[in-house]
UniProtKB/TrEMBL annotation:
It comes from Holdemanella biformis DSM 3989. This is Metal-dependent carboxypeptidase. It catalyses: Release of a C-terminal amino acid with broad specificity, except for -Pro. It comes from the Bacteria. The lineage of its organism: Bacteria, Bacillati, Bacillota, Erysipelotrichia, Erysipelotrichales. GO terms for molecular function: metal ion binding; metallocarboxypeptidase activity.
Length: 498
């Protein structure tokens, strides 16, 4: 059990109470709150955020925390936790409270505008809000001691995954591009897999019934997990016993809600399986985004797209969807893993997915430099998609409005999806060596997977970085070749290229 001085423990509990309030407001806004009431709640959220900000960044309290940090033993979890806190405070302690409150209001209004704009396929409605939130996001960097006037994107990348820079991501993506793009082009010239059955119209209530089957199979504890629906699926954490996830059902995209829910459950499981002693501390809050995405992508891709996963659930699938009765498990799994150069990131297959991330990464670098003309952003987006994937959106919903991230100021988050996928590949390769994953799935022992993740990854939370965890678990430093080699092997077999 972590032991802190009473003043510090009270400080953290107070901030945790504010965090719980913010999460509650946000989740309700995204799920059940009447849309016409959101502008008022955004105003109240801004006021509440200002009060929390003042408490968090009180100069006397920060001074006391800095002195307290000097008394903690090097290498102790308490020292690591307080150091994380001081790193976070360094980003915010110089920001005037009014500036921060304005940022929160701009962000909340921007996200609401994005929802409205996407529904109406109206980029012009969102454009001024996008400009405003990007301006405020970059403006806040001026108060960060790591910012030197020319390294905005590096500072942002480091916030989402500590130690990452443009130089490191450039090397990572160049490796991905060099190894995967030729394979993508080769597959495009081969006979394509017919997945029309996945795009027939299936009523949402039928999809919901099958979702219950999948959740039961994954042994989701609905005493700790709540599942709802939103335009863009996400996960939020309220405590070590409370995770909220959302999904989105499309009548003509049978696979979408299933894989998005498996993905979000990967996030939820990570939070629920962290060491309970870390609850309410920076050891849960400071987990890197790539670390989190490694766990969501782990479940979505290595488990949720696997043959054993669908073989185990095939009979119940056919019971609820007789349309699949003439399709074998092999054929179904081929459909699920089909690769196609398409427009939507969240629906992308594993092989083309990193190219979707590269499009966003390259645009973000220009946004951070202040080089983007927002009037021409949809065209820039379309040009990048045509360059990397050979497709071009004909509307904004399938183009620049498809993701919510920029509406919330999440500049620098997108690359963590690809890095997380690479972490996941190395972890999964290690897990396969330690027990028969296929057998666990076929015999309804999903808990073997979740227990392995808890023991080897989840319970550490931020007490270790994901790079450290990967090296300890696999016995070698992080190696992105696990990721590219896994994809090459999988898709060469799928398309008979060996």
């Amino acid at each position: 059990m972590l032991k802190f001085e009473p003043f510090y423990q009270e400080y953290e509990r107070t901030l945790d109470a504010f965090s719980l309030a913010f999460s509650t407001i946000y989740f309700e806004q995204m799920t059940i709150a009447p849309k016409k009431g959101i502008p008022y709640s955004n105003e109240m959220l801004s006021r509440l955020s200002k009060q929390a900000f003042i408490i968090e960044n009180d100069p006397e309290t920060i001074k006391k925390i800095k002195e307290y940090a000097k008394t903690l033993p090097e290498g102790s979890l308490e020292k690591k936790e307080v150091d994380y806190r001081l790193e976070a405070l360094a980003q915010s302690e110089n920001i005037p409270s009014d500036v921060y409150a304005n940022y929160v209001k701009v962000k909340a209004d921007s996200e609401l505008a994005w929802h409205e704009a996407k529904e109406a396929d109206n980029y012009e409605h969102f454009k001024p809000h996008l400009q405003a939130i990007m301006k405020e996001t970059l403006h806040l960097l001026e108060y960060d001691p790591k910012f030197n006037g020319n390294n905005a994107y590096d500072v942002l990348l480091d916030r989402y995954e500590k130690g990452m820079t443009q130089e490191k991501y450039d090397a990572f993506f160049n490796n991905v591009k060099e190894k995967l793009v030729p394979l993508i082009h080769e597959i495009q010239n081969k006979p394509q897999i017919n997945d029309d059955l996945l795009h027939e119209t299936y009523a949402v209530d039928r999809q919901e019934k099958f979702m219950n089957v999948i959740c039961d199979f994954m042994k989701v504890d609905f005493g700790k997990v709540y599942l709802s629906t939103t335009e863009h699926p996400f996960t939020d954490f309220f405590s070590s016993n409370d995770a909220r996830i959302t999904t989105h059902y499309y009548p003509d995209q049978f696979l979408s809600a299933i894989l998005s829910t498996v993905h979000e459950y990967g996030h939820a499981l990570y939070g629920l399986q962290m060491d309970p002693a870390f609850e309410g501390t920076m050891l849960t809050q400071a987990v890197g985004s790539a670390a989190h995405e490694s766990q969501s992508r782990f479940l979505e891709n290595h488990v949720g797209r696997s043959h054993a996963f669908w073989q185990a659930n095939y009979n119940q699938l056919v019971n609820l969807f007789p349309e699949f009765k003439d399709v074998s498990v092999d054929e179904l799994v081929n459909m699920i893993n089909k690769t196609e150069c398409a427009l939507i990131r969240t629906e992308a297959d594993e092989l083309t997915y990193p190219l979707h991330i590269m499009v966003r990464y390259e645009i973000e670098k220009e946004i951070a430099k202040g080089n983007v003309d927002y009037d021409k952003l949809p065209e820039l987006w379309a040009d990048k998609y045509e360059e990397y994937l050979g497709v071009r959106p004909t509307n904004y919903k399938e183009g620049v409005l498809q993701d919510m991230h920029w509406s919330t100021g999440y500049l620098g988050y997108f690359p963590t999806y690809a890095l997380g996928s690479a972490y996941a590949a190395q972890l999964y390769a290690t897990m396969e060596k330690q027990f028969d994953v296929k057998e666990a799935l076929l015999t309804n022992h999903f808990e073997k997977i979740t227990n392995w993740l808890k023991d080897n990854v989840h319970h550490y939370a931020a007490s270790k970085s994901m790079a450290e965890i990967v090296e300890e678990v696999s016995g070698e430093p992080f190696n992105p070749d696990y990721y590219t080699d896994y994809l090459i092997k999988k898709y060469k077999k799928l398309y008979n290229l060996d």
